[in-house]
Amino acid sequence: MEQSVKGRLLDGYDRTHDRNGVSGERLATLASVGKTEDGGVDRPGFSEEEKRAKQQVVEWMRGAGMDVRMDGAGNVIGRLNGEAGGPAFVTGSHLDSVPNGGNFDGPLGVLSSLEMVEAWRETGYVPPVPVEVVVFSEEEGSRFGAGVMGSRAMTGKIGDGELDGLMDFAGRTFREVIGTYGSTPEEFLAAARRPDEIGFYTELHIEQGKLLEQADLPAGIVKGIAGLAGLHIVFRGEAGHAGNTPMIGRRDPLVAAGRFVHDVSTLPSEIGDTAVATVGKLTVSPNGSNVIPGQVELTVDIRDLDKEKRDALVLKVRETAERCAEEQDAEIAISQLSSVDPAPVSDEIRDELRDVFMEEGIEPMELMSGAGHDAMNFAPMAMIFVRSQGGISHNPAEWTDLSDCVMGVHLLKRFAERRMEKMARANED
């Protein structure tokens, strides 16, 4: 019989990490609902599988002494009252997944936050300000193609017009899907909270890359989340017979697109070390083996931590596309699919995190998040990454050793306690 995820985690666990009320045994329950045959999970946003996973976490939250509610966006909010009132220290992540995804992306942040609360209960620690552990809805965007929906709803960064245009993979409207889930678009938008209710947000997450593994470090400090710009580009030429159309005079949009794809790969290095650009989707029409294509559609994903550099890269990509089209006498149409600003972490917060890492005996390595996270919708915010084995993510092979996960909890806990003390002093002033 195949060993469970919990069994595999516990097999290599260094139990010396069980201290200050933190338990690796408790944290090891990562996969439960929506398990696939490959050992991954399949929990689309606003699905029955995601809802059941949330209900399990609700039970654990109540068992940890938290007051629990679900808002109109389906976000689960577990609240622990502090010694005093004021804005809450918020932490958490998501439970939805990509199709046949991994066991750690999202759930680790939720369960680590809950484990921190359990550790406080065991040691008798009472936080100086209210604490909220949140499970956000539809972070991945696998349902509607629109990510971080729950956190955008909570922070008022999503509008009625966007909801009206959403259609899921089965052709159902957002209103239909959210209605089946037990809410309405109006209640979804009403999940927006006042800015003074949330004082700080922190998220623990797997790295989904190889930098920490290459540096042989269990965890690292996120210095910011890259801003995304998405472009949709269409090259149009003249379809024709592959055998009867001379090479001279052809207007082949696939040649233009091929040169463009190659040239795009060289552009980020002209901008900076953190810039990236990816052609991830390409459609050739009519896509026949003996037909010169008449049209090629593609998308370009452009990211950087610096907004000005990201925008400069977008301009270079546009200029390159226009040049490649002109060289083939092809027509071109370029449209913007998306634009999300970068979310940098302040120097002050990174300094705090460096102190916390050194107190735990870990070299404070800083790295950028190329992927989007719920944290990008909050300010101020902080993120901690833990090491990913092989950098694999969004895949059943996604793996992080339990010792690294628990070290992440210790870092999260120590940072939360320091940050909450600052919040309490600010409230007194």
Automatic annotation (TrEMBL):
Its cofactor is Mn(2+). Transmembrane segments: none annotated. Residues 8-20, 35-52 have a biased composition (Basic and acidic residues). Residues 226-323 form the Peptidase M20 dimerisation domain. Keywords: Hydrolase, Manganese, Metal-binding. One of its GO terms (molecular function) is hydrolase activity. SUPFAM superfamilies: Bacterial exopeptidase dimerisation domain, Zn-dependent exopeptidases. Residues 1-52 are annotated as: Disordered. InterPro entries: Amidase_Cbmase, Bact_exopeptidase_dim_dom, Peptidase_M20, Peptidase_M20_dimer. Coiled coil: none annotated. Homodimer. Belongs to the peptidase M20 family. This is Zn-dependent hydrolase. It comes from Bhargavaea beijingensis.
